[in-house]
From TrEMBL:
UniProt-listed GO biological process terms: L-amino acid transport
Domain ABC transporter: 54-264
Species of origin: Aeromicrobium piscarium
Extent of the signal sequence: none
Name of the molecule in the record: ATP-binding cassette domain-containing protein
SMART domains in UniProt: AAA
């Protein structure tokens, strides 16, 4: 089991060489998979800390007048993976849904420096915030795997994105002509994550991706997300499973009493 890396200092000092190069845009890996936002001339070929991907200030989320999460302040750097840990009903899903624009919220949300709190869920997705909900059934069951990916890709994902999906989720290539409804729960979860990747998002919100998975599939999903992390994908992951979170996250936050606090 990999150690819980969020205990070991700033994320940008811990990043593996592959992640590091993809984040800062060194010329050596410009030909590899790139995040959605193009590199600026100042970013190419230089080394330094990651830039901010998501900034949340005095953010609260809930339903009507009931705010489940209150006054959250959080900054996530480009290429960083942050886990939000808590028991069932603690407010993890409410927090992610609020960021995605799916419930009532207030406060500031900046994605790549642009305020998105005034946008609805569809507009936030177009801005680059991809959300994979907790519940299963996030696929079109009567369509094949390829058809699901095609629909999610809209005008069409780049060849590099398709190659990344094939590399990270080889089972989907194996079952590309199978109806999505015939896949196992873990395979459907892989497909849901792959569908989110087809939009080439700036950042992914994953709500309990390990829920209900058999141990073998749990390890497979963890390995897949770790590979996406190596590819420079920024992720905010809500989880109850601490082992799973420790396999993929740079640091963790605890949800309790409507607040988010750093994991000690």
């Amino acid at each position: 089991m990999r150690s819980q890396s969020w205990r070991m200092g700033p994320a940008w000092l811990r990043a593996c060489p592959v992640t590091w190069r993809r984040i800062v845009g060194c010329e050596a890996c410009i030909s590899g998979w790139m995040p959605r936002r193009p590199w600026t001339e100042n970013e190419r070929g230089r080394c330094g800390p990651m830039t901010t991907q998501l900034e949340i200030d005095r953010f609260s989320a809930g339903y009507g007048r009931i705010m489940v999460c209150r006054d959250v302040q959080l900054t996530i750097e480009r290429g960083e993976v942050v886990a939000v840990l808590g028991a069932n009903g603690a407010g993890k899903s409410t927090f992610l849904q609020g960021l995605a624009g799916l419930n009532d919220s207030q406060g500031t949300i900046r994605l790549d420096g642009t305020s998105i709190e005034g946008l609805n869920a569809a507009a936030r997705a177009r801005a680059g915030l991809a959300f994979v909900p907790e519940q299963r059934g996030n696929v079109f069951p009567h369509m094949t795997v390829l058809e699901n990916l095609a629909i999610a890709g809209g005008k069409g994902a780049s060849g590099a994105t398709r190659e990344l999906i094939d590399e990270v989720f080889p089972a989907l290539e194996k079952y590309r002509t199978r109806q999505a409804g015939l896949l196992s729960g873990g395979e459907q979860q892989m497909l849901a994550i792959a569908m989110a990747l087809m939009s080439e998002p700036a950042m992914m919100l994953l709500d309990e991706p390990s829920q209900g998975l058999a141990p073998t599939l749990l390890r497979s999903i963890a390995a897949s997300l770790a590979r996406l992390k190596q590819g420079g994908i920024t992720m905010l992951v809500a989880e109850q499973n601490r082992w799973f979170a420790g396999e993929i996250a740079d640091r963790a936050l605890l949800v309790g009493g409507g607040r988010l606090t750093p994991e000690e």
